[in-house]
Amino acid sequence: MEITSFWPIFFIAIGIQGLFLGFILFLQKNSNKGNLVLALLIALFSISIFDTVVFWIGYYKENPHLLGLSLSFVVLYGPLFYIYLVRINKANTPVKIKNKWLHFVPFIIVLSWYLPYYFSDKVGKLELISNWNNSIINALLVPFLGLLSLLIYAILSYRHIKWLENKYELKIIKSNHWLGWIYKSYSFFVVLNFIHFFNVISGYSSKISDIFIALGYSTFIYAIGYLSLKMSKLLNGIKVDTTKYQANSLPEKFSKEMFAKLVEHVQVNESFKNNEIKLLDLAEELSLTSHQLSQIINQNANQNFSEFINSYRVKEALKLISQIDRINLLAYEVGFNNRTTFNKVFKKTTGLTPTQYKKSIR
Questions:
Q1: Exposure b/e, 24-62, CB count within 10 A at least 16 = b
Q2: What pLDDT shows up at residue 247?
Q3: Backbone dihedral region for residue 270 (phi beyond 0: left; psi -120 to 50: alpha; all else: beta)
Q4: What is the C-alpha to C-alpha distance for residues 27 and 40, in angstroms, rounded to an integer?
Q5: CA-CA distances (angstroms) from residue 313 to 49, 149, 270, 286, 334?
Q6: Residue 171, SS3?
Q7: How far apart (Å, rounded) are the C-alpha atoms in residues 346 and 69?
Q8: Is the dihedral of CA 102, 104, 107, 109 positive or negative?
Q9: What is the DSSP string of 102-129?
Q10: Is 87 within 8 Å of 38 (Cβ atoms)?
């Protein structure tokens, strides 16, 4: 199957839209640094699309200076995406890197390797292109380094999003949260790059497999474009919604009634024993928003969600402590993920560690 005239035109149109979207993001007066990074990432994706099309249609034979503009971009995508995630919320990342420029060392190395190509004349470039696959560095090492970079930053980005979920008791990846869709689009792009790489080393590389890479670029661009239209605040640097309570207080009667239902629900269903329970999960079970439930707990128990759930876990632990000998098993039984957290919460509540408490009752 050959590349028809449809695909070059289709992807050129997407590339133009990507440049336009990046330009709009860059020019927004209220745009934060995160969106400036996003604008650059979209622009690089668009240039990469144009680079692919130039190769497909053979336009590089007469204009070789237009081919290879995106050669070193493959080790830029991951760092830029990760920096975007961190910058949009101005939050501390769980991975501490003192010198942020270290993210771009692979790009500097790859760019340095390709400098002879960039500064070659027309004849020199065409000769390098014709012998491209004869170099193991060009054919395998740099693509593998790019793939490794994409994978590492996909993992770092996932860890950062999970950190946001735990810190603010949100569902991002497993919901329709806008940030989740951006991450899924990037992950889809990474998966397509893996498929393409393994096609290359298996000898099955073709223009058809190149289409998958271009589709990866396109999916990310259209995801940002769609979210920008759906939520215009994205263009102004929208942050992750971490608001703890709604601006308006809930009516006192309604708050008390719902708190009574909450207590009954937690006790009857023993929700606290679920070590994966989230504020949003419990709120949905009670037909409330996470903000409403958080406010109800705060108003009636003077606790946050974690403190409220942990209070039931400790009460349950006090009932079972004489029946279960091993402390770690007791911790898991009442809903804690690990013994360390259980010991900390238990001591804060009772003044004793579980081991000390067992000795005292004996």
A1: bbeeeeebbebbbbbbbbbbbbbbbbbbbbbbbeeebee
A2: 40
A3: left
A4: 12
A5: 54, 42, 9, 20, 5
A6: coil
A7: 59
A8: negative
A9: GGGHHHHHHHHHHHHHHT--HHHHHHHH
A10: no
pLDDT of 11 reads 92
pLDDT by 10-residue block (mean), the chain, 362 residues: 70 93 77 79 94 87 87 94 82 54 92 92 88 86 94 94 76 78 93 88 72 88 78 49 48 86 90 88 82 88 91 92 86 90 90 87 72
- Residue 91 pLDDT: 47
Residue of 76, 70, 66, 82 lying closest to 46 (CA atoms):
70
150 touches 188 (CB < 8 A): no
Amino acid at 99: N
Residue 230: the pLDDT is: 60
pLDDT tens per residue across span 139-188: 889 999 999 999 999 999 999 888 887 776 667 787 777 788 899 999 99
DSSP class of 92 = P
Q: Alpha-carbon torsion 329, 330, 334, 336, what sign?
A: negative
pTM of the model: 0.65
DSSP state of 64: G
Q: What is the pLDDT of residue 245?
A: 40
The CB-side HSE value for 156 (13 A sphere, CA atoms) comes to 22
Q: Which residues of 132-149 are buried (b: 16+ CB within 10 A; e: fewer)?
A: eeeeeebeeebbebbbeb
Which residues neighbour 124 within 8 Å (Cβ) at sequence distance 6 or greater? none
For 303, the token pair is: 């606790």
Other CB atoms within 10 A of residue 233 CB:
13
Region of residue 68 (phi > 0: left; psi between -120 and 50: alpha; otherwise: beta): left
Q: Which amino acid is at 67?
A: L
